[in-house]
Design brief:
By secondary structure, the protein is an alpha/beta fold. It is about 35% helix and about 25% strand. It is globular, with a radius of gyration of 12 Å. The chain starts with a strand and ends in a 5-residue tail after the last helix.
Length: about 90
C-alpha cells in the first residue's frame, strides 16, 4: 500500500460519489491506495451512497460515527483505521 486517502464527510450524499470516482480515476493506475471515508454522523443518505459504492470498490473503507463529532475527530478516526485490517 502506497498510501491512504482519508475523507471526513457530513451530509454529502450528492457529492461523495463524484469525489470517490475522481480519486479512484486519478490514483488507480499509479498507486496502491485505499480510500477511508468517515461519515461523521450524517443525517442524509450519505452512508447508503457509500455502502453502495463500496460493493464495487474494494479500495473503499467506510466508518460511521453515530453522532457528529467534528472534522478533526473524523480525520483522526480515519488515520487510526490505516493500520487495521479491513
Amino acid at each position: 500500500m502506497d498510501f491512504s486517502v482519508v475523507i471526513p464527510v457530513h451530509n454529502e450524499e450528492e457529492n461523495i460519489g463524484d469525489l470517490i470516482n475522481e480519486i479512484t480515476f486519478s490514483l488507480s493506475e499509479k498507486y496502491q491506495h485505499e480510500i477511508i471515508v468517515v461519515d461523521d454522523g450524517s443525517t442524509d443518505n450519505t452512508l447508503d451512497v457509500l455502502l453502495k459504492i463500496k460493493k464495487n470498490l474494494s479500495t473503499l473503507r467506510v466508518v460511521k460515527h453515530l453522532q457528529n463529532s467534528g472534522q478533526s475527530t473524523a480525520v483522526r478516526t480515519g488515520f487510526n483505521m490505516q493500520n487495521q485490517p479491513g
